[in-house]
Each structure stands twice: as C-alpha cells, then as structure tokens.
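Hey, can you fold this one?
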Amino acid sequence: MLSGAAVEVLRTNAPWSPNAPEFGAGDNSAANPMVAGYGLLWARITQKHGAVATWGVDPTFDPNYAGNDGARQPMLTAGYDTAAGKYGGPGARVRALGSSATERNNPFESFRVMTLFSDSIEAERNGLGVRKLTRALAPQTSEAPLFMHLTNVTPAGVRSAVDQIVATGGGFDMLIFSFGSGFNLESTDPIYWAEVEGSISYANAHGVEVGGYDLIALSRSGAGYDAIDPATGKSVGSTCFASGWNRGLLAQAERFMDHTGLSMLETDGPYGGYACGSTDHDHYGAEDSVQRQWENQVAFYARMRERGVFVHAPDDYIFAGGSNKDCGWYTEMQFSLPRWQHMAISHTEVYDHTWYQTPTQTWMFAPLVDYHSGGPAAALEPFSQTGKAWDMTLANYLGAGVGACYRGDRLYDTPAVQAMVTKWMSFWVKYRAILTQDIIHVKRPDMQSVDVLLHVSANVSDAVCALAMLYNPTLQVQSVTQLALPLYYSGEHEAVLLAQEEGTFGAVPVRRDYSIVVNATVPPAAVTYFVIKRKPL
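Sure. Predicted structure:
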C-alpha cells in the first residue's frame, strides 16, 4: 500500500519563496493548500483534496555553517496530506513484480505539480504569467457564456425569461435552472422530462442554452450510501463519492440530458474531502477513501466535458476533470448586506483577485431576488425602485469580463430598465473579445474616487487592443485628469486610436513609458470607458 508520497520537492534560494524578505522566521506554509505562495516561483497542484503544497524550511541547509549567518533557505514540498488525523492517502494498492496476477490491482496516478518561474518581482507581470499558464493548460476556462440563474423554471417562467433575453439584445447565452427553483436533475418522471424538454427547446430556438443545478455529494445522506466517519462509525452527514451512488448519479445525469437537451451542469457541494471508513464501498478503507472519492468526482466532470457539457464546480476542478469555472471570490453571506455594501465588496473582489486569475475562470454573484436573508435591502429587485444598483452591477461584472450568477426571474420591470439592460448587452456583445482578455490593474477601488481597470490584448489581429473601465462609486461627480493608461502589454508603442465610449476615434501618441493619457468626468454612481484601437499600418 502506497501510504504517502512527495510528488515534488524543490530546495530553492529565498527570493523564490513567498514573503522572501521575511523568510527565516520558521515555517512559511501557504495559507491556501492549492497555491504555494506568490514568490518568484509560483506552484500549484492539480488535486484539491488529500494533497497539499507548502513552503517550509530546507532541513539540509545549515544556517550555522560559515558564511550563512544564521539564514535559512526555503523548500517547496508537494505531496499527499497525511497529517495527524487526516486520511490523505493515497492508500493505493500496487502489485509487486511477480505477484499473483489475480490480486486486485487498481492503477494509480499521482497529481501533477505546475511550477512557473518568474523573471520579475512586478506583480502584474507575475500574474500575467500565471494567467497565461491557466489559458494554456486549462483552455476550457476561456469559454465565457453570460448566464442567468433562473428562479422561476415553470414553462411560463422560462418563456418569459427567454423573451426578455431576446428583447434586450441577446447578450445572455444561457439560463441555469437555479437552486431553490424546484428543478430536479434526479427526477425519473417522464412527464417532468417532457416539460423540461419543451422549455429547453423553446430556449434553444431563441439561441439560449440551458443548464441546471444539482446538490450532489455534500449534505446528502440517508440513502444508504453515507460516508462513515472512521473515528465514530457514524455518518458524516454526506454521501460517499466512492459508494456506487456516484455511478448512479452519472448515469441519471446522462439520461436526463439525453431526454431533455440540458447542456450545462452546476454541481453545488461536490465531494468535500472527507474520509469514509465504510468497508463495502469502492475503496479499501479510510486510508484510500479520500483518493478514490476525488478520482471519482474528477471522472464525473471529465465525462460531462466529453459530452460538451459546460460545468460549474464550486471546488477547484479546473486542472483535473476540466470544469469550466469554479466559485468566485465572494462569501455567500455578504449578499445579505445592504445592496450598495455588497456591491462595493464584490467590485473590490473582482479587482483584487484578477491579478492571478483570468476574468473567465470563476463566477461571481448578483442577487436579483433575496438570496441569504438580506431581504429587500439586499436584493436588486424591483429594479425600477432600487436606483442605479442594477446598472452598476452590470457595469461591474461586464466591464471586468467576469461572469456572475444573475439570480432571479427577470431582467427588467419597466421600459426604462429594459433600455438600460439593452445598453449593457450591446456593450457586452460588441466588446466581448477584449473584455475577456487580461486585466491590467490601474487603480484599486477605494469607494472614495474613480477606480480603473484596463483590458489588453497583444494579438495583432484584434483591432481593439485595449479597453479601460472607469468607475465612480461615489455620490458626487468625479473628474480624472492626466490618467495614464499603460499599453505596454498590448504591444503598441507608437500611436493608437482612442475614443471615449462610442465617440469618434482620434490618434493619440504612446509615450516613452508605453502609456497614453486621458481625461474624463464621471457622473455619480456611473461609469465611462475608453476604447483603444491599433492604428492601421
């Protein structure tokens, strides 16, 4: 039995580790086991549960040796998480050469370790490297459908939502039958299948894909497939994803899709990393239960991707299983705050977390209707009575190229709101290619002044090489003068064409520091944007 393994051990000099100037004060493990820090060496493992990557002290380096002056050196270790009380495994049974061919032998393959060495301490350059790695090794994350989390999934509710999508310009690509809506992926009722198929056919006929939500392993128990706590012998309150139930779930999901045309799946609460001490499941025991459940969850997502299904997975299955998106940077309870507070938090989260992540690899959230007991003060509905909240929410997410769960049953409630949504849908459709490209972080939100992010593309075949979003979250008119927009990563270095919003383009010079300068006045609780095109040769 393979009870543990170190997949990668890298002894490095201090600048390669995170927090290099402070290194030497003891253990320097990364807080997030999936990401071993942001020094000059970026490292990530492809396995979410049962494995960990940490920075620590190199035990072979003698700080007291002559000339070392008490300094320590860092060491990156990526391996299976076998800390006290954990069943990180892998617990794999492997057959020795010459042993009986009849002995049970499950093939074992470890996780991968991705490492990226940077040539600079500049945060933006480091982040761009990581984002390029993500696009290269997980290209499915570049798929970026705009989707509505529909709460009214009756045939009439679906038709109404589809009609509103069409009436606002068709910017939304997908409906997701939301949690709490009554949608049931696990139904075997042919009458229900026919009802869902009719709704999906209507949506497809209008260019809208349809997906559905399902709470799978987490918090599911009582069906005879529970995960058993190895210490107590009692249920952990959730299903074991290596109990046979997982195979039934996969078969059911495929049957449902075959009959209805469902083409997207959001799985909430996938396998959560718990061990199972059962002796009659598809694992030997607790020691390999984490590994087997992880492998089965990965295989579930891989099968969905083979079918061309777009997959939302709250946990990190981007590099294993191939999910399209994982959960964004929010906490669910923040959307119980008054709307302008949770909007400000979300706006800042988008800016802060796109340093090392692409705009399209995660999703955020927009509570069109009440979500987590926030009530009328938190929800964006009714749109016509909540001021500019819906307008600024669309500006925040669409302007950053970040997908969000727009959860509700409609997009507008008056002609004026319809016109506003149509404006943003037109913006999204027209500039989608550049909006989903890399973000250059110009000015961080402080909610006291205008903040700025800039999308860039170095692909010379793209006519639009950059787009700058300027946000004014305050209640006063804000003016910005001589704002420098850095175009270095667009590849342009002489002159470009510039227009504010949909105005006339004019040539502007690129300064020696690869920037151009703009001036703007932004109304209260509003945005403006600048479009930068390559100058024709």
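The chain has a mean pLDDT of 91. Let me know if you want another pass with a different chain boundary.
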